[in-house]
């Protein structure tokens, strides 16, 4: 409503509009108004709304979009939500509301400013239109950046040590028997991160748009298989499919598809039952088969 009022399109927020449409629909039922006349009015109003939005020539739209509870990380000032941004009122700090095709909610920005990190979040799309998931964190300059859970490097370029002492181990690594922990966008062996890498076990927390909860990773590590997960999306066909995640003998994670019951064989009629009236001879039944002709 704030956005529509700011754009100067108050008619869409008026309760009278619904009543007017209901009245005109009732007239159509009684034959007092034609469908083409009604749709002509709808098309004209839609065109007015589109033109008003397209010709709006300001970077901001007036209206009360609300305030964030977290202070500005740069100056400590108040941050307000505007049409396109979350803008500090005391300095030039601002965060875009839409990043990589995904719109941030005010509560998510509050968490980002408070924790300096949020995620993993889904709903992002790359330039090819393909969806992806990522963690968003604020860097030293308070600018947001994607973190895909690959770990950070120190000043000398080597990987930084990761402290798992406060985290709960999800199970035993299938490759080296060390502990597995949730780390960023993946479940990793504790020996696969840091400067002294000695293992490469790693499995995503999101695989083909299917979120893999910690409980499922625990089952995979302990029993070799998760429950049936139903929200995978094929990267090739864009269709959903169901599968189990399974642990191979080499420690790698793969798919196991649900076994389907075989379809019943189609019935083939070897003979046709013919009802014969009393006193009539039954006509012989013949079966015609196609055969490839050569020569």
What is the alpha-carbon Rg in Å?
Answer: 32 Å
Sheet-strand content, in percent, reads 15-25%
Terminal-residue CA separation? 79 Å
Helix percentage: 10-25%
Note the main sheet: 4 strands, antiparallel
Strand order of the largest sheet: 9-10-11-12
Number of strands: 17
The dominant shape is flat
Residue-averaged pLDDT: 83
Q: What's the tally of helices?
A: 5
Structural class: alpha+beta
What does the secondary structure layout of this molecule look like, with pairings?
Elements: H1 2-6, H2 15-29, H3 35-54, E1 79-81, E2 85-88, E3 94-96, E4 98-99, E5 102-103, H4 106-115, E6 117-125, E7 131-138, E8 144-147, E9 171-172, E10 179-183, E11 186-189, E12 202-204, E13 206-207, E14 210-211, H5 214-223, E15 229-233, E16 240-247, E17 253-256
Antiparallel strand pairs: 1-2, 2-3, 4-5, 6-7, 7-8, 9-10, 10-11, 11-12, 13-14, 15-16, 16-17
Model description:
The structure is a single chain. This protein has 295 residues and is an alpha+beta fold. The protein folds into 3 domains: 2-54; 79-147, no CATH class; 171-256, no CATH class. It has 5 helices and 17 strands. The strands form 6 sheets. A 4-stranded antiparallel beta sheet has the order 9-10-11-12, covered by helices on one side. Strands 1-2-3 form a 3-stranded antiparallel beta sheet, with no helix packed on it. The protein has a 3-stranded antiparallel beta sheet with strand order 6-7-8. Strand 15 (229-233) and strand 16 (240-247) form a beta hairpin.
């Amino acid at each position: 409503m704030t956005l529509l009022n700011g754009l100067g399109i108050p008619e869409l927020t008026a309760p009278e509009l619904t009543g007017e449409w209901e009245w005109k629909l009732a007239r159509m039922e009684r034959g007092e108004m034609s469908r083409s006349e009604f749709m002509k009015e709808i098309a004209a109003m839609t065109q007015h709304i589109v033109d008003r939005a397209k010709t709006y020539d300001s970077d901001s739209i007036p209206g009360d979009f609300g305030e964030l509870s977290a202070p500005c990380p740069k100056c400590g000032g108040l941050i307000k939500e505007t049409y396109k941004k979350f803008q500090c009122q005391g300095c030039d700090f601002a965060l875009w509301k839409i990043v990589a095709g995904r719109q941030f909610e005010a509560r998510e920005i509050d968490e980002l400013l408070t924790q300096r990190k949020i995620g993993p979040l889904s709903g992002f799309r790359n330039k090819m239109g393909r969806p992806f998931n990522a963690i968003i964190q604020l860097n030293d300059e308070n600018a947001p950046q994607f973190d895909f859970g690959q770990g950070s490097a120190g000043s000398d370029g080597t990987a930084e040590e990761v402290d798992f002492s406060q985290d709960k181990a999800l199970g035993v690594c299938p490759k080296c028997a060390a502990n597995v922990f949730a780390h960023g966008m993946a479940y990793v062996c504790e020996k696969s991160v840091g400067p002294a890498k000695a293992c490469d076990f790693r499995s995503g927390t999101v695989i083909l748009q299917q979120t893999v909860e910690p409980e499922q990773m625990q089952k995979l590590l302990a029993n070799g298989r998760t429950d049936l997960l139903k929200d995978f999306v094929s990267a090739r066909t864009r269709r959903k499919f169901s599968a189990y995640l399974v642990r191979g003998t080499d420690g790698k994670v793969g798919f196991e598809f649900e076994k389907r019951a075989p379809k019943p064989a189609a019935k083939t009629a070897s003979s046709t039952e013919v009802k014969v009236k009393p006193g009539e001879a039954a006509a012989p039944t013949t079966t015609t088969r196609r055969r490839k002709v050569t020569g």
